[in-house]
Amino acid sequence: MSISQVMPEDTTFSFRTKLAARLAVLVARWLKNKPPKKIQTVLRRLSKGARPAGYDEAARARDFVVGTSLLCTGPEGCLPRSIATAVLCRLQGTFPTWCAGVRVTPPFGAHAWVVAEGRDVGEPYPPGYHRVLLKVEPR
């Protein structure tokens, strides 16, 4: 069975922002299959010189990434979604804290997400649901 998904057109974003979101998703597609250390290294380099992203900025970037790419939409898309969100924020001069970790309760599950202003951005899970194993903060 297949499910049709329609992504709403967000007219509040400029053509430049839409192009930036597509670029961020391309970077995420390339980076998602790399080893965790490589992902962390690339994101550390990107975070250098960026100011911390505000929650609203990061949430808006995440929403646009999800609206731009089906890869980033589903529950299996957490890694490319978090990378693309961080890259899009960086293209706009900010950087959220990027995290990758595991669920603390069984069954085992890996997850990647972004944090801004001390809060997980767009995540349905309660605080403490995941344990951070890798983290990249704005520098």
Give a brief rundown of this model:
By secondary structure, the chain is α+β, with helices and mostly antiparallel strands. The chain has helices at 15-31, 36-47, 55-68, 78-91; strands spanning 51-52, 94-95, 97-103, 110-116, 119-120, 130-136.
What's the topology here?
Blueprint: H1 15-31, H2 36-47, E1 51-52, H3 55-68, H4 78-91, E2 94-95, E3 97-103, E4 110-116, E5 119-120, E6 130-136
Parallel strand pairs: 1-2
Antiparallel strand pairs: 3-4, 3-6, 4-5
Structural notes for this entry:
With 139 residues, the chain is α+β, with helices and mostly antiparallel strands. The protein has one domain (15-136). It is 41% helix and 19% strand. It has a 4-stranded antiparallel beta sheet with strand order 5-4-3-6. Helix 1 crosses helix 4 (78-91) and helix 3 packs across helix 4 (78-91). The longest helix has 17 residues, at 15-31. The protein is globular. Mean pLDDT is 90; it is low at 1-8.
Helix count from the secondary structure assignment: 4
CA-based shape:
globular
Largest sheet: 4 strands, antiparallel
Average residue-wise pLDDT = 90
Count of individual beta strands = 6
Rg, rounded, reads: 14 Å
Low-pLDDT runs of 5+ residues are 1-8
| Series of H and E elements | HHEHHEEEEE
Relative strand content: 15-25%
Kindly report how far apart the N and C termini lie: 46 Å
